[in-house]
Design a protein that fits this description.
Blueprint (H helix, E strand, L loop, with lengths): L11 H20 L5 H23 L2 E5 L2 E5 L4 E5 L3 E9 L2 E9 L5 E6 L7 H12 L4 E2 L1 H13 L4
Parallel strand pairs: 4-7
Antiparallel strand pairs: 1-2, 2-3, 4-5, 5-6
Helix pairs in contact: 1-2
């Protein structure tokens, strides 16, 4: 039965700390009498909103393995990849570690790209490469992806 991989970090703690800090800063700024306090409070709220947007976008990451189908979502769109249609896997570095761009050939012959945000998911690297080995052995791995696969094999996480 397919299941979504859990996130590799707790988003609740940073969100709570940032919210408490922003609330305290806005309170201290507005209690004062300095000119421009409303602008300073608005700037703090704006920074808090940007931070919360980053936290929210990271919580949108998901990956589901369902037999020969892999479904990934990095922000707003869910992409479903059939193993036989996977052409290549390219590693790209993120602030949380390596994630992978998957090149997939559609029914009409066009190649599209989607991102598997495995750096944000617990067990994401092992799940992705286990799926690739089982259902898409024809996929071309770039140098970074091949190196990750070898590291996973050395650790015993991939057969």
């Amino acid at each position: 039965m397919p299941h979504t991989l859990p996130l590799s970090y707790s988003w609740q703690t940073p969100a709570l700390v940032a919210s408490a800090g922003a609330f305290a800063c806005v309170g201290f700024v507005l209690r004062g009498t300095a000119p421009g306090r409303w602008s300073a409070a608005a700037a703090v709220v704006g920074l808090w909103l940007v931070f919360m947007l980053v936290v929210w976008t990271r919580t949108r990451a998901s990956m589901v393995v369902d037999g020969s189908r892999l479904s990934v979502r990095s922000l707003r769109t869910v992409h479903t990849v059939e193993g036989a249609r996977l052409v290549a896997v390219e590693q790209h570095l993120t602030s949380h570690g390596p994630s992978y761009r998957l090149r997939v050939r559609d029914e009409d012959g066009r190649v599209r790209r989607c991102t598997a945000p495995v750096a944000l998911l617990r067990g994401g690297h092992a799940a992705l490469f286990t799926w690739i080995l089982a259902h898409a052995p024809q996929a071309e791995l770039d140098r970074g992806a091949a190196r990750t696969l070898e590291q996973l094999r050395e650790r015993g996480l991939v057969g």
